[in-house]
Design a protein that fits this description.
Number of domains: 2
Low-confidence stretches: none
Strand content: 15-25%
Distance between the termini: 24 Å
Mean pLDDT: 92
CATH superfamily of the largest domain: HAD superfamily/HAD-like
Number of strands: 14
CATH class of the largest domain: Alpha Beta
Helix content: 25-40%
Order of helices and strands: EHHEHEEEHEEHEEHEEHEHEHEHH
Largest sheet: 6 strands, mixed
Shape: globular
Number of helices: 11
Radius of gyration: 19 Å
CATH architecture of the largest domain: 3-Layer(aba) Sandwich
Structural class: alpha/beta
Strand order of the largest sheet: 8-7-6-9-11-10
Length: about 280
């Protein structure tokens, strides 16, 4: 049996960060055909939960680029690859030196997320915090309140491109860490960086799911650098038309744009789903 893996932003979701009606209908057709699918995303559980609700994502989900796997049936995470106190301290110090606010994400045994942060330095920082405050699953605290034994899943920051690039260069010199970055939705002048332990990746997590459920083949869809590890482990990998050049070069083929239901249209043809619908 095949297992289909979707990245979310820039892949399955449209530019409004939503599953379109056409894509929703396609997922329903996959489910009715008994074709297995799930998600591997850089988002957190709470950042994806509302989007995925009602779309039959019943298999385990891969979050934070493989840092954790969420099992919906059991309502629990697998063991997370978390940051050590030393790694955390180094990243926080680097952020502060670059004039960035470090947002430290933790997860407790009840799956509640607490975000710890230092003094806010920009309007973009304020927008982030406002978003956290509107999420009932997330609690915010001062970085000074971070417990010594906290389970830190990742660190996020937002700022000018020069500061983010400097952070990326610093992380590249630290083998036990990995970072991804991009343009922030809070404004084109801002860029984001997401940092976690290098022992986690989408590819490693997908290999674990493939072995656990004994799937013979993996078909995946993505658009950005954090998808390269799952492209490397998949039997077939497809890049959306809006994907970056590294992903396109690694892909089996390039399909339609994420804002034109490219993944859904490919799946309907690949699995002849429209013939089932009619």
């Amino acid at each position: 049996m095949d297992l289909i893996i979707f990245d979310l932003d820039g892949t399955l979701l449209n530019r409004s960060s939503q599953i379109s009606e056409y894509t929703s209908e396609t997922l329903k057709l996959l489910s009715e055909r008994g074709i297995a699918y799930t998600v591997a995303t850089g988002r957190t559980l709470h950042g994806a939960q509302q989007i995925l609700e009602g779309h039959h994502f019943n298999l385990p989900h891969v979050y934070k680029n493989g840092v954790m796997i969420w099992y919906p049936a059991q309502q629990q995470f697998s063991n997370s690859t978390t940051l050590t106190a030393s790694e955390l301290g180094d990243v926080v110090q680097d952020c502060l030196q670059q004039g960035l606010t470090p947002f430290v994400f933790t997860l407790d045994k009840n799956h509640q997320s607490t975000v710890y942060y230092s003094a806010l330095r920009s309007k973009a920082d304020q927008v982030l915090v406002e978003g956290f405050c509107n999420d009932s699953h997330v609690t915010t605290r001062s970085l000074e309140e971070l417990p010594l034994d906290a389970s830190v899943t990742h660190i996020n920051s937002i700022g000018a491109l020069t500061a983010i690039d400097a952070m990326m260069q610093s992380i590249e010199k630290t083998p036990q860490l990995v970072a991804y970055s991009g343009v922030a939705i809070e404004g084109a002048q801002w860029h984001w960086i997401d940092i976690h332990h290098s022992g986690a990746s989408k590819g490693i997590a997908i290999e674990a799911l493939k072995k656990l459920f004994e799937y013979k083949r993996v078909i995946c869809f993505g658009d950005s650098d954090n998808d390269l590890s799952m492209f490397a482990t998949a039997d077939e990998c497809y890049a959306t038309a809006n994907a970056n050049e590294a992903i396109k070069s690694a892909a089996t083929a390039i399909i339609g744009h994420h804002d034109e239901d490219g993944v859904a249209r490919f799946l309907r043809e690949r699995f002849k789903l429209d013939s089932v619908e009619s």
